[in-house]
Design brief:
Number of strands: 20
Helix content: 25-40%
Strand content: 15-25%
CATH superfamily of the largest domain: Exopolyphosphatase. Domain 2
Shape: globular
Distance between the termini: 43 Å
Oligomer: single chain
Strand order of the largest sheet: 11-12-10-9-16-18-17
Radius of gyration: 32 Å
CATH topology of the largest domain: Nucleotidyltransferase, domain 5
Number of domains: 2
Structural class: alpha/beta
Largest sheet: 7 strands, mixed
CATH architecture of the largest domain: 2-Layer Sandwich
Length: 525
């Protein structure tokens, strides 16, 4: 699928654990009953000696003649019973089959939660292979694999968790690898999508110990890139990925591959941030909000504390989340089409998924005057140029961006009182212009984006820049945050990692998936 973007192999020291899997139990086989070691009690064909004895016996011959006479007499009672017995037998067989399938899936799910640590401090891959059983140190180890199929690439996250009895799990290790382009690039040739998926699966096989494979959930969630594809093309891609997953050695359910709706994406990112900051572990501790700006969509999610927010939120903006035996009422919404790349296209005057008519050039007041070039988005190449003799580039650009955002974003007053983390393109653009450290991240106020936008746009009026979209992108981010309701002095934290873990929605999504499996196993909890 392309070149590797990044591989993280940081591993915290710790024990390697093994799991007993019930996923591949052998089917029952027919064996002689107890006390019958030769199997004589089983049904056998009549012996030749027995038949010969009957032929030699006159009494047997007479009896045989009588039997033939009896077979000439119709037996309506037996016919009626046959009509009843056959359907009943079919029903019993079907019932047994369904019961077996349910038992088989329950066994696999139970195996997932029987993961235990067996060799504290041993080196992974070189420890003694003790049989899985009760955790030697009172805690469990388990893994989860999440594929993030985004608009610009496919990424795999392999997570290792530790859990003390009765406590919230902790993340002890993450492996991350990304490939380009995204799945949506193979919409017209789904077979080509399999090589990249298989390459990322091989990474998971190397990272997850062999004994854990059959109890490690494997899930793929596709985001805005596939949401923007025609439904039939998207489903063909997902079906092909599902076939590859089913052939893997990991725990694969019927819901292993799906297109993630925008709200779930925002909620999963919220789980990630609040798990990593410790907010989910401590009841009553203030949670943090989440802002994510992707290529095709943007999300905002937080836990409202003000009744007015709950009462005035539009339909579809509030969602319930159950995690760790608690229920959260979240404000979460995803704006499809307002991701940075989709917004660029809209600002330029293009239409998602359609080439410009007759190769027409897209002209924008947000580009440097006199600039001409090409820009590729979603496998379509557009010819673009800046507006001639433009003055006050920022003002013209802000006017155009405001048109794109008008009446598309819901404003809520409570956001000014909630601590927010911002990710993805928020981070990238801030680092690009020096508002935060490119490696460590940092904090800024919303107004910093506006200051940077004005400076960059003013510079672009007189000379071309390395990134022709910088004026446009910064202006868009500044106005988007204002539309959400953030004042200029509102502080935001921008980071790629918290406690050395990527702050993507992938961790929250696999965490939620595992928690749902746990609730299925123990519904009374």
């Amino acid at each position: 699928m392309g070149q590797t973007a990044r591989v993280s192999t940081q591993r915290k020291p710790g024990a390697v654990a093994f799991i007993h899997s019930a996923f591949a139990d052998p089917l029952p086989s027919s064996t002689p009953a107890a006390g019958d070691p030769t199997g004589e009690g089983l049904a056998r064909p009549p012996s030749l000696l027995g038949l010969t004895a009957q032929l030699e016996s006159p009494a047997a011959a007479a009896q045989s003649s009588a039997d033939r006479e009896m077979r000439k007499i119709p037996n309506n009672g037996n016919l009626k019973m046959t009509k009843v017995v056959y359907p009943l037998g079919l029903f019993i067989c079907l019932f047994i089959y369904v019961a077996y399938i349910k038992w088989h899936w329950a066994s696999a799910t139970q195996a997932f939660f029987s993961i235990t640590e067996v060799a504290s401090g041993a080196r992974r891959g070189h420890q003694a292979h003790s049989a899985p059983g009760t955790a030697a140190h009172g805690h469990e180890v388990f893994y989860g694999i999440m594929f993030d199929a985004g608009s610009t690439g496919t990424r795999v996250h392999i997570f290792q968790f530790n859990q003390q009895p009765g406590e919230t799990p902790t993340l002890t290790h993450e492996t991350f690898k990304a490939l380009k382009p995204g799945l949506s690039a193979y919409a017209d040739d789904v077979e080509k999508s399999t090589s990249g998926i298989q390459e990322l699966l091989d990474v998971a096989k190397q990272d997850v110990p062999f004994d854990f494979w059959k109890a490690t959930p494997l899930v793929l969630k596709a985001t805005a890139g596939l949401r923007l594809l025609p439904g039939e093309k998207a489903q063909k891609l997902l079906q092909k990925v599902k076939e590859v997953f089913k052939a893997s050695p990991f725990l694969v359910g019927d819901d292993c591959v799906s297109i993630m709706n925008g709200t779930d994406e925002g909620v999963s990112a919220w789980i990630t941030v609040n798990f990593l900051t410790g907010s989910l572990k401590t009841p009553g501790r203030s949670s943090v909000g989440m802002l994510d700006l992707g290529g095709g969509s943007t999300q905002i999610t937080f836990l409202p504390r003000v009744e007015d927010t709950l009462q005035t939120s539009p339909p579809g903006y509030l969602t319930s989340l159950q995690m760790f035996n608690r229920t959260y009422k979240l404000y979460s919404y995803s704006y499809l089409g307002l991701g940075l790349m989709s917004a660029r296209l809209a600002i330029l005057g293009g239409i998602e998924g359609k080439p410009a008519e007759d190769g027409k050039e897209l002209v924008s007041p947000c580009l440097s005057p006199g600039f001409t070039g090409e820009w590729e988005h979603a496998e379509i190449t557009y010819r673009i140029s800046g507006q001639k003799a433009a003055v006050n580039l920022h003002e013209l650009c802000a006017s155009r961006v405001s048109e794109i955002l008008r009446n598309k974003v819901h404003r809520t007053e409570e956001v000014k009182d909630v601590d927010f983390y911002a990710f993805s393109y928020y981070y990238d653009l801030a680092a690009n212009v020096g508002l935060i450290d490119a490696e460590k991240g940092g904090s800024l106020v919303v107004g910093d984006f506006d200051i940077a936008a004005k400076y960059v746009c003013r510079t672009a009026e007189t000379r071309l820049q390395g990134n022709p979209f910088l004026c446009m992108d910064l202006t868009y981010i500044s106005l988007l945050l204002q539309e959400f309701g953030f004042p200029e002095n509102k502080m935001l934290k921008l980071t790629r990692k918290i406690n050395d873990v990527e702050t993507s929605w992938a961790l929250g999504a696999i965490f939620h998936y595992i928690d749902s499996l746990s609730r299925q196993k123990s519904p009374a909890l």
